[in-house]
Amino acid sequence: MDINFLILPIGIVVLFFLLIGIGIAISERGGIRGFDYLFLASAVAAFVLSNYLWFFSGAKMAAVMVGIWVPGNLSLGMYFRSMLTRTKKIN
């Protein structure tokens, strides 16, 4: 059974839930910093580019490679965020 037709709708639903989660996090925590927006924008751009490459250009291996950037970008953002938080608590 070919389930490739489910990938795009599921990706859209996941992106929708991600945006809702970001909105809730912003409202509960009082905001996010400017560099958080940059890391989030880089992850969203990589996600969109990966989906474009997969579905519309047919470059599936390039799409997989670009898709790997998403967790890397988010991990770097969390690392720098934790370093900023730790630095503020120490000082």
Walk me through the structure.
- The protein is mostly helical and 91 residues long.
- It has one domain (4-90).
- It has helices at residues 7-29, 34-57, 60-67, 69-90.
- The longest helix is centred in the middle third of the chain and has 24 residues, at 34-57.
- The model has no long low-confidence stretch (mean pLDDT 76).
How would you briefly describe this protein structure?
The protein has 91 residues and is mostly helical. The protein has 4 helices and no strands. The chain is 85% helix and 0% strand.
> Which geometry do the CA atoms define?
elongated
Overall pLDDT score: 76
What is the β-strand count? Answer: 0
Beta-strand percentage range: under 5%
Structural class computed from helices and strand pairing: mainly alpha
- The end-to-end distance, rounded to whole angstroms, is 58 Å
From the structure above, extract its key features.
4 helices, 85% helix, mainly alpha, 0% strand
List the helices and strands and how they pair.
Layout: H1 7-29, H2 34-57, H3 60-67, H4 69-90
